[in-house]
Specification:
574 residues, globular, alpha+beta, 27 strands, 12 helices, Rossmann fold, single chain
């Protein structure tokens, strides 16, 4: 779960008038016909900030400290047409433009471009194509932005303030290969057919020490699942720069965490290249969809066959290119948060193709605890109701239980960023992955984003197709023998998003299995937040930077214990 600035090039100018009046506060946008022609689709954002440093586009989030944003869809807009921001625009956290109080603000506008996809399922949809940034609306190359401007806002004056789009976010440079890290891109035939255009999958491959010196060796493969990577994270041949200014981490209450991260990245390099360290290929995958920074690595009606594309196209392609063993007993999965769910889900849905998963702080693995909502028994996602009152359901807490956002806030945030499930955020990607396609071609809603009312029919579809605990229990007779010893799950008992609640329910089932017993491990970190990954001896701030060091020895041990007779257990163990 979760939520780049550089030089920009002049692209086009959109003249924007902002009109505030006592009775009709509004914001009007017009495209200048001398600078742009043709029709444009997308979403226009107006951002209003109290902060004088930085850009408002980087100050919007789903927490209590967020700045203000309004969003309006545009479809087929042409030069000369007027786009209006009034009280019908979707706002967050303040819902109505007229409710913004008088004061001095910094304002910025952004145009998030959509493209048209004619899918093989017969639906035509308008969505943002990833442009190398991992589906980040505020960083996407080609999006138009304005230079932030300070204004004094008094709705009673009816003053008109004009702004203009004067910049285009530039392309992202391609990463550079090194001795140990290689970058690949592969056209997926499966995904290209589904989306009606060429779709590519990418990966960053970490090669083992001695790869060039041992051309006869073939290697096991570990897939590090997670959010869209810009390069292979946490590995550096260069020692930490201890002269740079320390940066404080509020999440971990640590000063100089930037230097700590660099030290750990260099430590991984030293461990990785040391004698007798387990030799294997490790990859991180780029698989963004038009809905999010990654696909959740499974097949779905809205995203297409990403599970099959990764397992049957990308993985064999990498193994052939970099001398992987290429058999299920030699492949492993690990990751945290989104990557934790993916590691477990891929192991469950492709039980013969992988030999073990290490799922840290996974997204909800049981929809009876979808964060803090029971999708099957609760009627409303936003509130827990009694006969005379109701209580907001929290969405984020710290290790002491202090709440910084609610599920209603998260829904409102995503409504402002995009209609029809196009916000590119957490709730919308879960919905895009788990839901069936609606009549309009977009994902069917699990709950109404204004009222919070849960759609029980959609919840049942989620249950039968993506509730991992339910699927394991339902299909254990056939899945159990294939998964014995392969499932390992770790979570902090104070996970920020309440993800430990679902892990408890999964553990209840796994520990009750006897035919066969699952034979893996479920463990919890005391007072540990998101993303605790199973190390009881190190603080979360450090253990989260040591995934490979933690799991590589266990992967090697699992191979030696479970590989079939005649398997290659020697060429890669030099």
């Amino acid at each position: 779960m979760t939520f780049r600035t550089g030089l920009v090039s002049f692209y086009l100018v959109l003249f924007v008038g902002i009109t505030f009046s006592q009775n009709n506060t509004k914001f009007s946008v017009k495209f200048n016909s001398e600078l742009e022609s043709g029709k444009l689709d997308g979403r226009v954002f107006l951002m209003i900030s109290t902060e004088g440093t930085g850009e408002p586009r980087f100050q919007i989030n789903d927490r209590v400290g967020t700045q203000q944003i309004f969003g309006v869809d545009v479809e087929g807009v042409t030069p000369g047409e007027e786009i209006i921001f009034d009280n019908n625009a979707v706002g967050y956290p303040v819902e109505k433009l007229s409710e913004i109080p008088e004061g001095e603000y910094f304002v910025q506008i952004l145009f998030h471009k959509y493209e048209t996809f004619v899918r093989s399922d017969g639906h035509t949809v308008k969505l943002p194509m990833d442009r190398g940034e991992g589906q980040q609306w505020n960083r996407a190359p080609g999006n138009l932005i304005s230079t932030p401007k300070k204004i004094k806002l008094n709705p009673n004056l009816g003053k008109t303030i004009s702004l203009e789009f004067d910049q285009k976010i530039p392309p992202i440079p391609d990463p550079v290969d090194t001795k140990y890290i290689k970058h690949i891109k592969m056209k997926s035939e499966l995904l290209s057919e589904f989306w009606g255009r060429e779709i590519y999958l990418g990966a960053f491959v970490l090669l083992p020490q001695g790869f060039d010196e041992h051309p006869e060796a073939k290697y096991p493969l570990a897939i590090f699942h997670g959010h869209f990577p810009s390069s292979f994270g946490g590995f550096s041949e260069t020692p930490a720069d201890t002269t740079q200014e320390p940066v404080y981490s509020s999440r971990f209450n640590l000063d100089g965490y930037n230097i700590t991260q660099q030290k750990e990245a260099h430590q991984l390099y030293k461990d990785w290249t040391s004698p007798n360290y387990p030799r294997m290929l490790v990859i991180q995958i780029q698989h963004p969809t038009p809905y999010y920074d990654d696909s959740y690595a499974v097949n779905s009606e809205n995203n297409g066959p990403y599970g099959d594309a990764i397992t049957y196209e990308l993985i064999p392609y990498i193994e052939k290119m970099f001398r992987g063993i290429g058999e299920g007993w030699s492949r492993f999965l690990y990751g945290g948060s989104t990557g934790g769910w993916e590691a477990l889900a891929v192991q469950v849905f492709y039980p013969d193709e992988y030999n073990g998963c290490f799922a840290a702080c996974p997204d909800p693995v049981d929809f009876r605890s979808y964060m803090i909502v029971d999708l099957y028994n609760d009627m409303n996602a936003f509130y827990k109701s009694g006969p005379f009152t109701k209580v907001d359901r929290p969405a984020h807490r710290d290790y002491l239980g202090k709440i910084s956002s609610t599920i209603k806030m998260a829904s409102q945030y995503e409504m402002a960023l995009g209609s029809k499930g196009r916000s590119g955020q957490q709730l919308d990607i879960w919905q895009a992955v788990y839901s069936p396609v609606g009549e309009d071609g977009y994902p069917k809603e699990i709950w109404d984003k204004e009222s919070g009312k849960i759609n029980k029919e959609i919840a049942e579809y989620w249950k039968e197709n993506y509730d991992l605990r339910y699927i394991l229990e339902r299909d254990w007779e056939t899945l159990g023998p294939k998964l014995e010893g392969k499932i390992n799950v770790y979570c902090g008992d104070m996970d920020n998003y309440y993800l430990n609640n679902a892990v408890y329910l999964l553990e209840e089932f796994l520990e009750s299995t006897t035919d066969p017993y699952y034979g893996g491990e479920v463990a919890y970190g005391d007072r540990a937040e998101h993303c605790w990954n199973g190390d009881p001896n190190l603080p979360n701030a450090i253990s989260r930077l040591r995934y490979i060091q933690m799991y590589a020895p266990r992967i090697e041990k699992r191979i030696l214990e479970s590989a079939p007779e005649g398997a290659d257990l020697s060429s890669w163990r030099y």
